[in-house]
Hints:
Blueprint: H1 14-39, H2 42-49, H3 53-81, H4 83-107, H5 110-142, H6 147-170, H7 175-197, H8 214-218, H9 226-257, H10 261-280, H11 282-289, H12 291-311, H13 318-329, H14 332-340, H15 347-372, H16 378-381, H17 384-394, H18 409-436, H19 444-448
Amino acid sequence: MPIPRFAPTHMPPPARVAQARLGVLALFVLMGACLATFLSRVPTIRDMLGVSSGTLAVLIAAGAVGSLIALLVTGWAAARFGTRALLVWSSVTWAVAVGLVGLSTEVAQLWLFSVGYFLVTFSMAFINVAINAEAATVERHLSKAVMSQFHGAFSIGMALSLAVGALASHAGVAPLWHFVAAALVITVVRIAIVPVACLDGSAQPATASATLGGPFATAKAEYRERRVILIGIIVFAASMTEMTAAQWMALTVVDDFGRPEAMGDVIYWVFVVAMVSVRWTGAPIIARVGRVVSLRISAVLVVAGLMVFAFAPSFAWIPVGAVLWGLGAALGVPIAFSAAADDPVRAAARVSAVASFSTVAGLLVPQLIGFLAEVVPLRDALLVVAVASATSFTLARAVRTDAPLFRSQRLARRREERAALEADEAGAGYAGYIADEPDSPARGASGRNR
């Protein structure tokens, strides 16, 4: 009986690995498209539901809860059922869920939106875990770092889907029909790609029980480490920067500048393009100037972009703010996760620990911005992110590999050099003193016979 072309295998030939690499890239593009499908229509969704920004923030919190609950069981599910099965079933669940979100706008039912959006983020958490697991497998077989390319493909998918959303909005297509069409196309294509992308993807029931509880269970011992907590705060700030742009940027353009939803999508598209362009070239930038400087430059760019958004005298400045904000948002999360993984023995637990800070940011940030927007203009509420970026700037030294947390590395080197010089001088002085002693061996017999 012939072996299926894309059957699970632990020892794939190079040609099969190359196919899987392309398949995983395609899955990341599709996941970006999934996220942007909803984000591209947020202003219309709010208006059709008839809610304020604060109420919308509460409704979006249902999605954060879905992500949190999924986070506790995704590792177990991947081990128990395998990533192949997980990708298929989570894709179908996402398609149904995004259809419910679209239907909720037609019937203006808030409970239906909450249920739909809960299921959207719940299913996307499973997709995220599965495709990252496959990406790691491909990277291991290739024996070279290609993970950043996969995440760049995610941003490309977002940019493409935002463009589709802008066109749909401009053409007056209702969110329901936009979402249903996107769900059908994305789900069919993803299910067709899954066998190509998964080299193995089979279940590992023997390890399933060890993965229950998600990062909170895996990393509980790491929360005692001060460096891990500080890196986690940096991840919180970086995630806050991306989440705020994703959820509120287009709405800011609509509410505070009176522009159509399609223009809000275009501005967010500019943000995404700026971010992905830096992520594709981020490795040489970090190698050249170091993690700390890269992180601080990123924080300054984010603050500059937010200031433009908050205080721009006209809409013409908003694309400039989006570019600055996107450039600054690009490297915060990759730098922080790389720093968390510096110790190879404890890398998995520490990455899980700092990842939990991103989850908490998802639970808190939308509500905070939404509630502030009830009392101040939305673009002023965005300045909360500037405070987070300033915190990231202050704590940047936590991402150094081997150095004290809050001490200048240059000053430490100078002190070490000064101490070494003083030790050499002291040693030379002591040797000279011994040489001048009458009975010193260094003076020899001539010294004793004077």
